[in-house]
Each structure stands twice: as structure tokens, then as C-alpha cells.
Amino acid sequence: MKKMIGALRVLLALLVAAPLALPAQEIDPNHLPPSLDPKRTANGLAQTPPMGWNSWNKFACNVTEKTIRATADAIASNGMKEAGYQYVVIDDCWHGARDADGFITQDKDRFPSGIKALADYVHSKGLKFGIYSDAGKLTCGGRPGSQGHEYQDAIQYARWGVDYLKYDWCSTGTRNAEEAYALMADALRATGRDIVFSLCEWGQNKPWLWASKIGNLWRTTGDIWDSFDKQDKAHSWANNMLRIVDLNEPLWPFAGPGHWNDPDMLEVGNGGMSNAEYRSHFSLWAMMAAPLIAGNDVANMDAETRAILLNHDVIGVDQDPLGVQGRRVWKDGDQEAWVKPLSGGRRAVLFFNRGAKAAPTQVAWEALGYPPALKAQVRDLWAHRPLAASAGRLGATVQPHDVVMLLVTPLG
Ligand code: GLA
Q: What domains appear along the chain, each with residue ranges and CATH number?
């Protein structure tokens, strides 16, 4: 009996080890990828919040290889690549059926050239390529999920050249989230390829408490949306974007290099909010060190949208190497002040007006964590000009649903 159990154990160990052994052979032990460096969190990737583009917010299930190619072309030529947008991610609905061996294939009508060719194309533009799956039997769009195929899917992604995986939480039944995400993280790590791992369980299991060693970013809330119904504008602004902000803001202590709170992808340019509201959305995401994943049609965007997504100063706040998530430090009715500590003793300050009327706002240096006698240089990051700071305090008039975003550099 003991012998039988021993033999079964060996068999089980072999079965479990089999998928690990295959890709591991490709790893040069003298040049371990950061993902295998045990000193780092999760996998050593995403030391600043990931930046890129994802198909879902604009194209949902209508995504095709043409969309992805056009998007990669646009990002590589319209300044977005230079601004830091890097990952081009196909969200749900790219999948076909599993083949006879259980490997996932693509939807052959929408992606006739195959995912490998598409990833090669994105790479040829100097960009990185991302894909989407789900920890359950089915994705949220009803395509095959990864449950029971984790190692096979990770191998397939690595073969295709995937650099980023968004991993959703539909059809997971009673699965334990931490275990399910850790299993996929192990499978990705075993491929030896650097793959940013994006957890998407909508904050249901408080991933900020356990996911920093598993993945690089975790959704903290339900889905963002941007209404196209002109009558419905207040909805995408107040009921959706601001609701997400208020859920994500208190989680600031859990973010840091390699592991970020993800309040969902950007809606800038999708038509349901005004430009002031999009400016607020983008600024708040930068203050919260959120991943900046554009979600609009970047191949056909207007100048205002472009100016928001390409504000290098605001992006610089998001991408600051200190990696501290900013937070609200002052609130009076609809008026708020936020602070994000930056490298070199600098700070980003955001005055935010949720209300319908322009309002003067001012805060004392102390509220921003500075000594009252501080001398500093202040720059307005949307007006692109210096702002004179009066003694001991900082103030500005903020337009309705808009922001004034400032960079404070202490002198001396
Ligand atoms: C979930 C996710 C979204 C998107 C869709 C795709 O709702 O939260 O971001 O990926 O699934 O079906």
C-alpha cells in the first residue's frame, strides 16, 4: 500500500512538473529575467504604473486584428509611444475554440493572420503586446476561460510573444481568488517570459491585501463606463468615474513600485464626458499612480483628447519613480486638494472642483505636508506656466468639474 502511494506521489509530481519543465529549458541561469529574481515583488516588472491601450472601453467585442494594427500604427506615430504608452492589449472576445490538445486558438474570422503575427507586428512598432483571459470556465464575454488550462495558456501566450495578461473573474463559481491568481502567476513565471500580470476581480476579495506578490496591478472596483447618451452625462461623471475615485483613493498605502491599485482603464475621448471632466479623470488617475491604459480610438482622436492623453507633465506625475499613490488631504463640500509625493522632495498638488460653479480654493503649505516658511517654485501642469505662490499657502480658482494641477519644487 505504502509503495503504491509512493508511486502515485511520483506520478503526480511528474504530472505537475511537466508543464514547468518545458519552457524552463529556455532559461539561461546566468541571465535570469527579472521575473525570476526572488528579491523583487511579484516579478520585478511594472516599476512604474503600466501605460498602454486596451480595446475594451471603445471596441468591446467588436475588436479585430485590423483595429489592433491601426492602434499600434497610431501609438507609434502620434507621440503616444514617446510619452510612454507601451502595451497594446486585446481585451475579451479574441478567442476561438481550444484545439484537440486543449491549446487556445484565436477567432479566425476576426484574427485571420493569427495572434503570433499580430504580436510580431506590435513588436515591430517598438511596442509591447497584451492579451486577456479569465480565471473561470468562460470569460465575461462567453469565450473559453483558463480554468484547468492555466499552464497550457501561459505556454501559448509565451509562444505568441505576449508581454501582458489581464486576467478576469467571470464564471469562477466558488474558486478562491488568491489561489486562482497565484496559480496563473506561477504558470506565467514558469514560461520564463516577462509578462505583466493584471488582476481583474473588481476588488471583490480585497486584492490589495494579498496580490502584491502575485501580480503587478489589481482592479479595485467594478467597471468604468462612459455613457454615449448626451442626456446621461451626469451618470458617467458622478455615478461612475467619481464613485471609482472614492473607492480607490483610501487604498493609497497598498500601491508601490511593481504593484499598483487599478481603478480601471481610461475613458478619455470616448464621448460621455466633457473635456474638463476628462482632464479631471486623467489628472486623478495620475495622482493615484494608476495604470494609464487609454481606452479610446487613438487612431481617430480629436486635438483636445490628444492634448489630454499626451500631457507629458501629468504623465510624469503618474510615472514618478518614487511610486507613491497620492491622496486627498483636504475637502470642503465640492472642493478638494490632493497631494502626491514625488522624487526629489517635489510634490504634485491637485485642486479638484466637483461642483457646478467655479470656486477659489487654497490650502496652507502644512496641509500639503510642507513647513509654513517653505519657498518653492510652482508650475501649473495644464496651463503650462508658473504660478505665483503667496506666503504660506497655495491657491487657485478651479472651473466646474475641472482641476488645477501643480508641481511644487522646493527651493534651497
Ligand atoms: C469585465 C472586466 C472588463 C472587461 C470585460 C470583458 O467586465 O472588468 O474590464 O474586460 O469583462 O468582457
A: 33-318 (3.20.20.70), 327-410 (2.60.40.1180)
